[in-house]
């Protein structure tokens, strides 16, 4: 097979040594081209060009943001997607059962390739951007925005930085008095008072160290989207939800938490712009988002 290895050398776990190990492992049975990204959006353009050239599989080797860009570039084409963990959290790779060490993870990827273990999966899409595992709206996105302001620290202090950003955003950088947006599910129902929403294409939402943050067992690559909306910013309901997610039981719907499953399309609207992030990358503020589930959007190489 013809492979393209897209490398984000700025990602936390990407080193020159690991890149050599990964390249050698993939090259034993396949023709491999290596390209490094150098700016945001670059991986999408690289992947689009690879699909036009008929490359069989593009491997995203970096953080979840790099993987998202690669998936966006090849979605809807015959080019397949491969995953290697290179970031600090690597949510999607770990969801597939891959270890966090890229030198170990590439063994499973090669085994999957050799076995022809390629299957189509669904992706979410918000406006024109695909996402592999989640989109965050409101408070969640405000936290990611704050993390990205300290991007130079992310490589060395990933999880502590996120905790700091969450606490400081809660305390002083997010309006907790009034709802920020409404959700319209297109069937006459909706949520008029959303403070923040997580839209899942798969589960878990993220990892805190080695602990998955399990929001909903209804989120899966072969099902529609799941939207979990917090209708309050009170400490008690949020901490109870977080505790349930860490125990692995998911978040229980209540008067404060709304969950909708197997969604094919819905809108998020507001009178003024609200922040959002996609697969961990902050994308700015919008006053309207259109979500769609795209079945069989890309063929994925599942590791063995």
From TrEMBL:
All copies of domain DAGKc, residue ranges: 1-130
PROSITE patterns reported in the protein's UniProt record: DAGK
GO MF term set: ATP-dependent diacylglycerol kinase activity
CC annotations in GO: plasma membrane
Name of the protein in question: Unannotated protein
Species whose genome carries this gene: freshwater metagenome
